[in-house]
Amino acid sequence: MANETHNAELSRTFRRYEDGVSEPDSWQDVIFKAGWSYKCPVYVQRTPTCQNGCPAGEDIRGWLDVVRGLDKPPEGVTWQEHAFRRLTRANPFPGVMGYVCPAPCEEGCNRRAVEDHVGINAVEQFVGEAALKAGFTFAKPAKETGKRVAIIGGGPGGLACAYQLRLKGHSCTIFESREELGGMLRYGLPNYRTPRPVVDGEIQRIVDLGVTVKTGVRVGRDISFKDIDKDFDAVFWAIGTQRGRIPEIPGADAPNCIGGIEFLREFNEGRLPEVPRRIVVIGGGDTSVDVTTVARKVGGFAGTKPDGSPLTYTADMVTQAAIHSGQKVTLTSVLPTNKLKAAEREVEDARSLDVAIVGNVMPLSVTIGANGRAVGVRFAPCEHTKDGKRVRVAGDETEIPADLVVFAIGQVADMDGLEALDNGRHAIAPGPGLQVIGNPKHFVGGDIIVPHLLATAVGHAAIAAEGIDAFLNGQPVPRRPHIDKRHFDIREGLPKNAKPVDGKVTSPDNVHNFENRAHREVIESDGLFLAHFATTPRIARTERRLSEIFSDGGTRITPLDEAQAVAEAKRCMSCGLCLECDNCVVFCPQVAVKKVPRDQKALGYYVTTDYTRCIGCHICADVCPAGYIQMGLGE
Question: pTM of the predicted model, to two decimals?
């Protein structure tokens, strides 16, 4: 008992410091213990969810940081130009994308956990329009490599690849089978979706880099595959899918049964003076909705001149009367009407034009009349099982009368003369880095791999351009990162005199307690301090109904003005990169987190930690809105 009492007294009277000692030992002696440590902050860059969802691979957070004023432009450069330069590293079509991209980036935006997504597409549209108004151009390469690349197809994928390759100094020749460049931008989308001056301006900006263009030339017909292979050092195939897929049902080969792509091409080439009164469109995706709205715009217009010859329907002609002409347009889909693949706003536009939409029906056959032409389509009710299979269900068959049947159920490529590349499914199979399997000097991108978004073709182009550049330089095609996007590089903005607080690093190649994990990690909303952000309503663009546009010929989407674009960009939470909010500096109880000197700071290099003071309390990480700070040093 005596010993126990004596030990208790010792523990109560134990003193860590001798009389007169006022300073503790170095915190490092406490923090660092052989193979383990208290958790101290590391500044970790990750990929935001918006960027992870962008098929074009844009550094969305990066150019939004420019618009909001966080990333200052160089002296003599406007923020509009600085944002344009940052954005177009990945995508040379910001104006076009602002009009037509369905913005998958916004679907994953972490801001949704606060109130609503950031209007990324709206801000991109503003940047693109501002660039066109200001006449921004791309700088030509300082040095030519002498290497020649053939680009087959002048759509968004081919143009984007030419852009990326010209920046690297390679000579590019585009072979386009049609009379004008643009591909689906020009021939596959109705002109009321994207103003033609925007399309023309962004295409011309790429051509002005010194791209050779040969239109009206189809490889496989006017020039052989062998000649292309022989005459160029590398080839990029971006031929797209230019034929509508026709289902294998009886009667589908009737002369008045066509694909949706062919229908839209006729419209955009000004060769659609009128359409029949009764049209059945089979699909449910964006193309099928475009077909129905074009049909309603053209209507039953009696397109003839006084001499009886056809009157060419121009893309800008407004036919208000056709909307009330008694024409019947029906859109059918195997999916329920509330689950169509087309964007909801597009479906509502079609409904506003009195398009009848019928869901859960599958086409059985096309009824052929005495003259050999289709006069109707027979349908049966159907539904989808849990595993996605389409099955017929009980119910009566129905027939919808039709003078024209448009199948918008998919697209296939025209591989005539290109059999050496055909993988047996009217497509070209890519290998690593989009290099064509079995043809090392050939690369491929866009819809010819698998039909998808315009932004996807642009993303493919950038990847292929890097592979082509490596191939032309005698290097292996680079291995792609897990998160294959454009990533912000902290080293770009660091001043030459930037030195970490600890004084151990003299090169910006190795920044004090910073780690870039953007190539392998995405930061979700649960990694952010959401309470930092006040509820701020999204500034939405004005989007007019097609019926209004057909009446007055105006623009469908009204871009944000400058003040609105800046305000909307400020809603971005800069997920995975420093927001420069000062929370970590203000709340650190040890004054261990400090701002870097003003003449050394850069985007992403704003604060640093003094580890002689840090006690691993986690407060800085807890209050970091962007999830940029991780307590992990020493693990």
Answer: 0.85
